[in-house]
Amino acid sequence: MIIAKTQRNMEYIAKHAVHEELGDVRVEVRPCGFLGLLIVHSNEIERLRKIPEIETLIPIVVRCKAELGEITSKASELIKYAGNFDTFAVRTTRRGRHNFTSLDVNINLGSKIKELTGADVDLDFPDKSFYVEIIGEKAYLGVIDGSEERKKYTPEKKDSRKLLNRISIVQLPYLGSLNAARSMGERIGRAAQSFEVKELIIAPFGYVEITELEAFLGGVRVGKKSRLEIQKRTYSRKVREVKIYLQDLYQVVRDKKKKGNILIATDPTGKQISDIENKLKSELHQAKEIVIFIGSRQGIPKGIFRLCDYVVDLSPYITFATEQAIPAVLIALISVFQKPL
């Protein structure tokens, strides 16, 4: 028996796909009326993996009444099925009304497994994960390898924030109609905050029409704030709030160069990332600060290039929109940073 989870309202499509793959097997759709669930009466889990409508598959080892004592008493059966492991996690999803919580199940079953095996609890990267799927008056208990769980954060991934928190974006303002300036400012502010860079410096040069600049700066503030609020609501970690400054472009390049930072300009006349990545990779790990100059309607003045360590063409023969520049250059640098030294 296998518990299969789908997106809501995809259950009957998934059921049809199961029958196409496995033939005339029994499939319970939306057991007890709960959406996004199938109970497939088969052990052909590898064949079910071919069905894209199914997002999660949990092979069921044992069933019992949805009572805390009953669930805890099945620990030895689960351990026998799981085989050897040094770390584990218990993950419970409870559907229906009960006189206990999902946390109660995690604590009681987890304590029993630890008592019987001596294994340690590791909720992030366990060797084995014990799943308890409670559906109404029944509990379905299964085991999967921890490596099968898809996780956003894993030990083998380099934390891109170690690079991003050292990056300063120097952005030429987008000027013109007030609505266009404000709209572009919002997109740029949102992009900078999304990547949690060290700072965003808006850097005009020469004479600038004040109302156009004011509209752009107002948009930057709004875009940053809207993204920051979303990050604070959704992230379990502390979010870095991007500082925003205004400084003359030529003064920025002088100040940043004096401090020995790595300066990178984006321009179609530059080199491809692939041509410089070996040298750049080492410097991205060592530099205290990486300063990236990005143009807008106006390109970056050519004299700035002489003070830059790199001039990079991010997409040869393609000119992308101003609001795409920050994501494009940061994703390119993250890709270089993550490669082995």
Could you characterize the architecture of this molecule?
This protein is an alpha/beta fold. The protein folds into two domains: 2-148, VC0802-like (2-Layer Sandwich); 161-337, SPOUT methyltransferase, trefoil knot domain (Alpha/beta knot). The chain is built from twelve helices and 14 strands. It has helices at 11-22, 45-48, 68-72, 75-82, 102-117, 161-164, 178-194, 210-234, 249-258, 273-286, 302-305, 325-337, and strands at residues 2-6, 27-29, 37-40, 54-65, 87-95, 120-121, 128-135, 138-145, 167-171, 199-202, 243-246, 262-271, 290-294, 310-312. The strands form two sheets. An eight-stranded mixed beta sheet has the order 2-3-1-4-8-7-5-6. A six-stranded parallel beta sheet has the order 11-10-9-13-12-14, sandwiched between helices. The longest helix has 25 residues, at 210-234. It is elongated.
Keywords:
single chain, 341 residues, alpha/beta, VC0802-like, Alpha/beta knot, 2 domains, eight-stranded mixed β-sheet, six-stranded parallel β-sheet, 12 helices
